[in-house]
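name: query_chain
kind: protein
chains: 1
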Amino acid sequence: MSHEISTLCRASVAVATVAAVLSMPALAGAADRGADQQIADESALTIDDVPTGFNEEAADDSSDPQPGAACRAIRKAAKAADAAPHTEVEFRTPGDDSGSALINNQVSVLASPKRAKVIFAAYAARDARRCLTGAYESIFTEQLDDPTAKVVVNADRYTPDLGDASVGYEVEIVATAQGDSNTIYVENFYVDIEVARVGRALDAFGFFNTRNPPPSDDVVAMTDAAVARLEAAL
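structure:
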């Protein structure tokens, strides 16, 4: 693999930052934090839920939302995330010449359905798509660290059949860089983000693939399984 393509693949690791941003909706105030934490722990995806070839890794939940007016509502939601019972898990495949993949899931348990609705609204708002595309463009451009690099991000919104309310975004990132021999290298990255409200809880998922979109059948199987567990736990 060329140095330029390797650099593009390393940039893919940064997408976990945005996935975490969009998968941390929460507010403080649960009546029984211990019980709510147990709900979150037992409802998140497990290694048995994900396709073969993934390894579980520690999730990084310390990332901050991107700046700018488009991300204002998401920043407000994320500021309260640390105060609520939540569990975040992450699974990755080893990166190689064939590409790499990442799965991120966070379950957050709120004090009431009303609070969950308020937080969910930030991720379903019209500005959320603009926040998402701007964040990915910024992250990939920074990671490439190449003045000739070009990053183009397109995101389409859709509505998954999950929980009481849900929103999804299919994102394609095209990163172009110029090699030492003036050769142009192009790499495609794909992200599928889904956020579902289930009663007073929120279940958020991020699926990332290089070269090809995340398989839709796998995405549906994982989200359905996790949301069903959360519904049962609540």
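note: The radius of gyration is 17 Å.
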